[in-house]
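Re: [help] complex structure
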Amino acid sequence: MSNHTDTIAAVATPSGRGGVGIIRISGALVPEIAQSILGDCPKPRYAVHRLFKDADGNTLDDGIALYFPTPHSFTGEHVLELQGHGGQVVLDMLLKRCVELGACLAQPGEFSERAFINEKVDLAQAEAIADLIDSASEQAARSALRSLQGDFSKQINQLLHYLIELRVYVEAALDFPEEEVDFLADKAIIHRLEQIKAALKDIFAQAKQGSLLRDGMNLVIAGRPNAGKSSLLNALAGDEVAIVTDIAGTTRDTVKERINLAGMPLHIIDTAGLRDSDDVVEQIGIQRAWKAIETADLVLVLRDHSLENEHQDQYEHIAILERIPSHLPQLIVHNKIDKSGHAAGIFDSEIYLSAKQGTGIEALKTALQEQVGYQSNSESNFLARRRHIIALEATQAAVQEAETQLRIFNAGELMAEELKTAQYALGQITGRYTPDDLLGEIFSSFCIGK
Amino acid sequence: MLNAQKYAVIVIGGGHAGTEAALASARMGVRTLLLTHNIETIGQMSCNPAIGGIGKGHLVKEIDALGGVMAHAADQGGIQFRTLNARKGPAVRATRAQTDRILFKAAILKQVQAQENLELFQQSVDDLIVEGETVKGVRTQMGMDIFADAVVLTVGTFLGGKIHIGLQNHQGGRAGDMPSIALAQRLRELPFHVARLKTGTPARIDARSIDYSKLQEQPGDTPTPVFSYLGSRADHPQQISCHITYTNPQTHDIIASGLDRSPMYSGEIEGIGPRYCPSIEDKIIRFADKDRHQIFVEPEGLNSYEIYPNGISTSLPFDVQYQFIRSIEGFEKAHITRPGYAIEYDFFDPKDLKPSLETKFIQGLYFAGQINGTTGYEEAAAQGLLAGANAALKIQEKEAWCPQRSEAYLGVLVDDLITNGTLEPYRMFTSRAEYRLLLREDNADMRLTEKGYELGLVSEQRWKAFSQKREAVEKEKQRFESLCIHPNMLSKEQEVALFDKPLSRAYHLSELLRRPNITYQMLVDLEAIGTEVRNPAVAEQVEIQFKYAGYIERQLLEIEKHKRNELTELAIDIDYQQVSGLSNEVRQKLSEHKPLSIGQASRISGVTPAAISLLLVYLKKQQLQSKVRQTNLETYGL
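Output below.
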């Protein structure tokens, strides 16, 4: 909801670019947020050097802070800019701190929208801002969807299901007190509350392991067996993480490695070679490889350049390309130029390199930076995941309070209020759920009606 | 009453919506005519003999806070009072009165007849007089034209009413009354969207044929709750009990055997019935695993032998009704006095209404009550009051009053209806109110009486009583915020008894009252504290306001956040095709619903936050453009 009384915060620099990373905060809470993070509210329109502190007073980063009081700012509201040393993780921690202090994550295009509403940009730009909101929100929805694939989405839906079930009981108890069962006194309520807590705990545990809510982009290396995928992983990671042999099918499972590319964390996933195989273990590996590809932010399709004239290689390469979902960005990489004799570098947006000798690796890194880093205005997966974590934390806090209201105060209506808040928070991920939806659920669960 | 008479406001219909509408408009000093097809049935309770309940009781208190008649009539006619959810928090507590139909109706009629500026006339209405897009008056059955600047239509289930008992059906507005067929046809010619709904009622039984020794007694609460803020227990007639019995597997078998002749299941009925008030045949089909269903045996009145068996509404053929009723414990020898039936009727898509309940297509024409797709006396009365008040405001050339969702259940009711329409008869529940903790029965007067007084709906007497109460609450609250209990002020035993352990520091009374097991009474019972408050309603207010303080503050913040959206108006004639960036789905929804504010638009299902941003940008653009035009005009005389 676009809400101009809220204070909003966002990373203002494109994700993945090194050097300087800027967080921009706009709204009434800015002076308080400045006070908390910087220790004071800087003199208006002066660049000051400050340490950026977290809640415990530890330094998150040090950099330049700029404060523009209303109305003389980009949005027309109080604006604070924190210019730090970049790096997704540091920026994310700063952003998280702003949210703790009462800011909301800005919706796509929201800074520009506010600037326009407060007459800081002229009429001629109205259409441009509309386009920005339109395309940015669409992209945000796409990256949210990508971040919600697989197990994570399953778990969230399970959590939602439990939450609705519990609300059905609690709301029915409040709105239909004359039914034969007092739902609030029912043990089922405590049981369901425990289910929800357990589900949330699971999700957070997994998020911490980084398997679902990763701090970075997923890069999947795919290709035919023995194209040199593991060698490429090793070349990028800088040490031997994957076993490399010249026997096709050596990698039976997906191997993950985290590297840092100019401040941008990348998760590189090496997959089993994609081919038809009779080996059961290898088949499982290949299935996992395809699964990994589905969660990728970018797929590196690797080919053995010395084999590219062979019919079999061409045939299987095309088969692989056809199976990769069309919306996924991909980069074609030709390996083993030490054998084929091709020059290293970027030609026609495709990379030529030798993972074994290390030639062309720098060209690949540059291309990666461009592909991953310059996703222009789009909301990165990284941010989409941050949104989800914030929503889940709010859900958890409300569920905890709901339990207190039930166990200590025995206040069904306040428990209901907290559960509504919990579901509203979860709704940031799963979509809006109306009171009428809930009533429908109640009527189909219980025979109600005097 | 002569031909070509002229009134300011005409109200058509003498049900719960019609009487509140006519009374409200007349209270505001506007010359009002109430037209009904039968003066004898003014204030008639056509379905169950009870007023209030969860969500509904909240509406009745709001009507009362605005000077309406329903709570007063319920006090005059109530023969068993209960506070539902008494052991749950104040926000979900609600009053309900089993009501003597005759006493209730008499109280309403008395008020209507005594009301200044209000005239009654018995005559069916066949036609509306409409000129261009403005209503000018009505034409009655005998061809008489009566003119008015505003018309409130509250015709309940009478429009195109059709009654079903088994596979037989006939036209009717309610058992024993004729439907308004001519008016229904006329309204179908106007540009409103019409659809059908269905509702049902159980057979009535002669109390003398019931074996009460087999039934479970359910007495009213003591002390007896009172409905009206101005009422007292002295208003109540004699109090009696209700009873409870249950259906059994044999009952269910009999019902199942008659389903082939049920109009619901044979497809005779096209209207949609309410999910929360299913017929007994619905219950046994949808919840086949339940081997019994509760029946509340509600007396129809002190001088009536009829009872209303609440929970077994049905449209099965009479022979099946007869058999299944006699299979129920205590009903073995039951004599049915009136058969149960289902009724289908026309309703108008409430999305065609403004928040004032004026129609979007015809100026000066207001709809209230079941015609808007609601069910229930309370929902109807609340709308009637609002429509009547807004009709009067229109006559007085004042801005309409449209209570917000954060102010009243009345606001929730109207906003739900006009924003998303309804697919079944709409009933109020507390879960529909996002600000449930603010919208309580106990503070309906605190929320609305001042506004009511400002509009002219509230009498001097009520205003004075309310002002005194409000002042007393404020005073006592201030005392609780300033007065402390210091350690050693009480004995150690007293401290432990009250607070589990001795006090380690001084606490304000307001802090102590927020603790789970501390009540207002416990604190003022302490000799050192005491109180001058004698009115229990004042004590209750102080207690609730402190106990709920944290949540109240939170909800007030929420309201503040949404206020700007609620106040940003959208014109009815916006061409949503011209708004850049909207998806086709959102365009279609907005064009169809024609929301009147950004807040309302945001509650339409399928309208995304991004779409709301785009609308705001569009509005700003329009505003800037007109500013540019204005400047050009001033600078260049263009």
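The radius of gyration of chain A is 26 Å.
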